[in-house]
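Input sequence (154 aa), recorded before submission:
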Amino acid sequence: MSKVDLAKLKELREKTGVSFSLCKKALEESDNDLDKAVKKLQKWGADKIKDKAGRTTSEGSIFSYLHHNKKIAAMVEVLCETDFVSGNEEFQAFGQEIAMQIASTNPSDEKELFEQEYIRDGSKKIKDLLNELVLKIGENIKIGRFTRWELGNK
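Predicted structure, token format:
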């Protein structure tokens, strides 16, 4: 393992929002390569999701998005383990982004939604955003039911 470049540690932390200790570990294991460290954090997030997948998600919030032209709207429920996390600022921002994603892309089901490129950053898929959030928050988080309306369409 190499010595961690503090500037890269700060940059990785700001970019991902993941704890300093995990960012440091990722940089150590990737020889201070930021791209490799980000991929490592994403993999750890996916592994964490698998570990937490059996946990009950009976809390959460419902999010909505109404397009500026008032002709397209979406609603989505995002579930988590505790009421405390449902009020978390990053959880709330994630829910809003997912509602906007659904309004913009009209996925047919959860699987399609997870595989979509994130509309604000084409280098990420929705499943990557979810993995990042689970890694940051440390709880099982799921996207539940969702729907999209478009004026005049049934």
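Checked by second reader. The helical segments are 6-16, 20-29, 34-52, 83-86, 89-105, 110-115, 126-137.
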